[in-house]
């Protein structure tokens, strides 16, 4: 949940990946609207000066991301990516450094993080075992006592990982894995969650609410805590 760790980078740029990025950009900015046919594989190959194999691989990647539909022997048509795309698109845009500012991905990512994180805290208060509850209280105390911001951030990261795991919700677990990776790829840094990490009393209150099984308080405290980063973007 905390935004720490190394920022991943995109792999080596091949001709296929360049074509993929170019077509993806045109789809996301509306140059190719939903329902529009893309030029044929042959036309793209000739127009871009690339092999048909490179074009074919690029189109397959677009299809996997939900951006186009490829019909056997027919046209490749643009899909409405807002309806058919998945969170993997967030990672792809972050890895390539091509998230259009108009999409507001940084804020959207943090808003989703806050929603899921708060409900994960609520579920953790209901479902966590005694050992998890005790560990959360201990970590919150350790965070409040730590003077080094880097140490506090590391503890905060571990604490939230335990909360999400304690929620017992696999969908939340996987979605937050993707969101955290996306935050790193979008070049968020640890300073963004500074207001969260610095408030030892709020972190203590969150751990105490979960330990007491107070799901309403856990949700409220977690949401207030996680909302603080949203105001920074």
Automatic annotation (TrEMBL):
Keyword presence, Oxidoreductase: no
Domain HTH gntR-type residues, every copy: 13-81
Pfam families associated with the record: FCD (PF07729), GntR (PF00392)
UniProt GO MF annotations: DNA binding; DNA-binding transcription factor activity
Alphabetical list of InterPro entries matching this protein: GntR_C, TF_FadR/GntR_C, Tscrpt_reg_HTH_GntR, WH-like_DNA-bd_sf, WH_DNA-bd_sf
Coiled coil residues, start to end: none
SMART domains, sorted: FCD (SM00895), HTH_GNTR (SM00345)
Keyword Kinase assigned: no
Annotated keywords: DNA-binding, Transcription, Transcription regulation
Protein name as catalogued: FadR family transcriptional regulator
Lineage of source species: Bacteria, Bacillati, Actinomycetota, Thermoleophilia, Solirubrobacterales
């Amino acid at each position: 949940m905390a935004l720490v760790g190394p920022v991943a980078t995109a792999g080596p740029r091949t001709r296929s990946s360049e074509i993929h990025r170019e077509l993806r950009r045109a789809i996301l900015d509306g140059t190719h609207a939903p329902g529009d046919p893309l030029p044929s594989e042959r036309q793209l190959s000739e127009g871009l000066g690339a092999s048909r194999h490179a074009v074919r691989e690029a189109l397959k990647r677009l299809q996997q991301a939900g951006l186009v539909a490829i019909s056997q022997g027919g046209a490749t048509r643009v899909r409405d990516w807002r309806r058919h795309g998945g969170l993997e698109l967030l990672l792809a845009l972050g890895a390539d450094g091509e998230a259009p500012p108009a999409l507001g991905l940084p804020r959207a990512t943090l808003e989703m993080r806050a929603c899921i994180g708060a409900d994960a805290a609520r579920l953790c208060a209901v479902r966590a075992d005694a050992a998890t509850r005790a560990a959360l209280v201990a970590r919150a105390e350790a965070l409040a006592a730590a003077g080094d911001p880097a140490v506090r951030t590391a503890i905060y990261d571990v604490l939230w990982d335990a909360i999400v795991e304690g929620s017992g919700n696999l969908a939340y677990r996987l979605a937050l894995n993707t969101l955290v990776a996306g935050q790193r790829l979008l070049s968020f840094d640890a300073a963004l969650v500074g207001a969260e990490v610095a408030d030892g009393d709020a972190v203590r209150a969150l751990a105490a609410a979960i330990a007491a099984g107070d799901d309403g308080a856990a949700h409220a405290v977690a949401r207030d805590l996680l909302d603080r980063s949203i105001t920074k973007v």
